[in-house]
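Side project, low priority. Logging it here so it doesn't get lost.
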Amino acid sequence: MNLRALLAAVSLFATTLGATSVQQLDSQLVLARYEMAMSDVVAPKTMIFSYTISQAGPSDIEQHHRLYRSGVNVRDEMLSDDGVPLKQKIVRIGQREDHYAVTRLAPRSTLYTMLFLRATGSGEHLAYEYEATPLAASGTGFTVTRVTIDGRTFLPRVIAFRTAGASAHGTGEISYGNVANHWVPLAVTVDAQIAGKPARERITWSDYRFPAALPASTFVAPKPLPHATLPPI
């Protein structure tokens, strides 16, 4: 019997043990299902969503954006600043990876060891929390410290992390959820020290859409309006 068949049999057995509740699974079985679920995740290539970023500290920010993504191509429209809608949205077009994609941040057995801490929740909503320890220094300044695995999808529900750079360091958590059969970020909060001063940042994502494609014009910078010229007197 292969691994997938064995896991399916164990899950069926656990389900039949109780009609109204899900039985807690062995922590190593959860990790095996987690690795299998992560190997099946396919990040959406094309998506549209809104996000709000709030920052308090050396710089105070409160902005609302709409973002269009196709692969690494990004169109980022700022719709409001300091809570005030902009009369003319600010558009930035460029290329960048999806830094918060679950496939990018979730700890894997090739990079981390994970120690079971506890199961939380009740009934049909169990989650499994693990401490994550890197096998080697990441070299990026970003390290996962804990992961909470959803007991139904076996994908990361919450990833806790620490981050460090030349003039800043901090800790944070990012939460994920299922939207239209895609496992996407919902919110991230970071408490940090920037140049020795405390700062707090929060990003929330909403209004996800996953079109099959976006028109090429989405990623073309808008042309500036022509300057009016007065005729000579």
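Brief comment: The longest strand covers residues 182-194.
Revisit when time allows.
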